[in-house]
Amino acid sequence: MGINVLFIYPNTFGMNMLPPAIATFSAILKQHNHQVQVFDTTYYAVDYGIDSDGSKEQGLNVIPFSKEMEKKNLRIKNTNWKTDLKKQLEEFKPDLLALSATEDMCELGIHILEEIKEYKQKNNIPVLAGGVFPTFAPEICSKYDLIDMVCVGEGENALIDLCKKIENKEDHLDVTNLWVKKDGKIVKKNTISNPVDINKNPIIDVSLFEENRLYRPMAGKIYKMFPVETIRGCPFTCKFCNSPDQMQLYKSLGHNYYRKKRMDLVYKELKHFKENHKVEYNYFWADTFLGISKKEFEEFCEMYKDIKLPFWMQTRPETINDYNIKKLSEIGLHRISFGIEHGNEEFRRKILDRRWSNKDIIDKLRIPHKYGVHFSCNNITGFPTETKKLAFDTIELNRHIEADNANMYGFVPFHGTPLRKMCEDLKLIKPETITKCATNEAPLVMKQYPPHEIAEVRKCFALYVKFPKNRWKDIERAEKNDEQGNRIYEELRAEYLEKYMPKPDADPHGGVEDFKTIKDPNQFLDNTDQITSGSKDEMNYH
Hints:
The protein is of the alpha/beta class and 542 residues long. The protein is built from 22 helices and 16 strands.
């Protein structure tokens, strides 16, 4: 018979990437005869966070796509989320509520639970919280009265065992990975099970979501696209990421968190989406897509010839070469997202544990231009010990790269990252503080780089990267959040959109002849530009 499981996915408009974890859990639970639904707040008006994609568009970080959203009727619902949720509860009658929340959406998740507190208590429905945040901050998550269990580590096996015990009306104190509460207190902290064999997971269940959740923007267009997991974990150790802590967590248990999916299974999934769901565009769910062997790469290229759809991937500059980008461009590679993060070599090495030189990055990122592959560069500012002057090293590096899009994000010290501990040690944040990425406010208050300066750099980052340096005085004035500054910013923004913003691709299916080609990737740079480095004194290393 099975039980009824309702996933609660707290999310804000614009963060519209389909959550692969929930889709995976749903497929697994349905294999075990359980019924699954999701309450997804993505297209509801909720007073938490910001429209992240809209902010990217406003900040000149992505090709404008708002008109395409309207064409696809992807807009905020005109019904009240509280009413819809209560109706869903009454009709579905869940036996288990599963809250899947990132750290930045935890507050919204608790708000949703508070709204259905009476129903939960009246019907004695247990609530399970899972994800990266509960894994690395179980003490914080378990403090909420409405959360009965916290999943530490991967959730596949824990969910199967928990649902079976609920179905059989058995005690669930001993379910692996779970911290279990009774009478408001943690009474059992179970050990973590072995890492999941991702090759045994079924194809994700996209039928769980409304049709409009299957679309997302890419290069100014809206495509029907699904996440396809090829790698779980990451072999690198960037200190702003949770991968090092994930690796360490499982290493301490004698296991490797880094796993790769067999290419025949990747092919099966891609084929399924194309034939049964009319997918238009693929994006690969892997922190470093090209973190695979030469044999696996060749297998991928051979099987993808049959898919014939454009695709997006994210990877690191050091993983690409002339051979693999040329070959990928021939089979459908449309866009790449590269993590650059910071432009000062010493700061990047010591604070972020990213060890490539600026010259190596520049040389590598000439390759996509050569084969007409569009790419974006992701950067972060607001790191602990950073200064505004150091942030301009990031601007200088991006001027030399000449990416199609250069993004600047604000640093967020998430739980489960090495830099979170650094921030706590420096007394820049309290251990119990829950941080957010869906906000324009910097979470760290630093004397040498205060929040308003971080906001100024983020606001004008794209302008500094693209405009010639004789325009920098105007851009500097546009940084200020006052009447004159905002007026100048809007003028510069309009000019930027006209001169520098790439136009939406006419046909991403068409091949390299349809793509923009830059013969000289440095042709737009001032001749006087030099990549500079901030002084060691300014870095204030700890």
